[in-house]
Amino acid sequence: MKTLSLPENEPFIAGTDESMEIFPHQIIKLTDASICYCCSGKALIEIDLQSYEITENTQILLLPGSILNCTYASADLTVSYIVFSDSLFREITSRLDPSFFHFVKEHPCIVIPEERVKPFIGLSLVMKDLYHDRKNSFRIQIFKNFVQSFILDFYDKTRHLFLQKKPESINRQEELFKRFIQLIHKHCTSQREVSFYASELFITPRYLSTIVQNVSGQTAKNIIDQHVILEIKALLQSTSLSIQEISNQLSFPDQSFLGRYFKKHTGKSPLQYRNQS
Question: Cα(265)–Cα(253) distance, rounded to whole angstroms?
């Protein structure tokens, strides 16, 4: 899915009404941010293990570090998109409240009303022209200003959604479970034990395990392991890192430990998985 990856040494790229280069079931960890709009067609994707159906007028906001897996794409799938570097993303979103990022992480795909379609199409057209305007001395600043204005407007228009994501019906266990998932997204590359997450939440491991079982029907350790395995798969598929380098990056004691851990959860060795992908 090269469309959502920046060309080398490029801070941003944009396209309008283009076909996506899809490799079904290729798991990719995104290093960049992207805003996409589905112009036509249909797709089924997974973002950080959550499944979403993409149809016409769906807007997708992908944060850096998201793990993406496309399981299906129709032949007529076309999108408009803006992809920009993690550093630009941090500059552009520096004024936003943390609740916005939590909302986007939980709701990356939103079917937008017709009146919201034109602003994004217009923005992507301007950004596409700007991408090719190499002689513009203020190219990057113009990009930041335009995209920041768009995201701030999106933030304002959707704020009522994420401010209402804490209705009275959401009890303390559900709130703690959401925070648990947020912590996994942040720390799973280095922390795989339930006790760490319980400590971060200021509760006991036993209570955390009870909460997770009650809310999701799964064990806390199983959910942690699912996210770690997803990280390993993404690195095996979308990078040329050696098994030892992946082991180091994910804080495993050594290559053999990672191999046993991966085979326990997938039935395959890391090399078998990489060669079959």
Answer: 18
Angle, CA 213 vertex, CA 209 and CA 218 arms, to 5°: 105
Segment 198-216 shows an average pLDDT of: 94
* Domain 172-276 annotated CATH 1.10.238.10: no
Query: Which pTM was predicted?
Result: 0.79
Strand arrangement of the beta sheet that strand 27-29 belongs to: 27-29, 67-73, 43-47, 50-54
Q: What is the DSSP letter of 23?
A: -
Q: List every span in the chain annotated with CATH 2.60.120.280.
A: 2-163
Res. 165: pLDDT tops 70: no
CA distances from 263 to 26, 51, 219, 274 (A): 19, 24, 19, 12
The CATH class that applies to domain 2-163 reads: mainly beta
Between vectors from CA 63 to CA 35 and to CA 105, what angle results, nearest 5°? 105
Range list of H helices, 133-242: 139-163, 172-187, 194-200, 205-216, 220-238
Q: What is the pLDDT of residues 76-134, one digit of tens each?
A: 999 999 999 999 999 999 878 777 787 788 889 988 888 778 888 889 999 999 999 99
Q: In this predicted model, what pLDDT tens digit does every residue of 128-157 receive, in sequence order?
A: 999 999 999 999 999 999 999 988 888 777
Best CA proximity match to 76, nearest among 120, 20, 24: 20
Partners of residue 33 on adjacent β-strands: 84
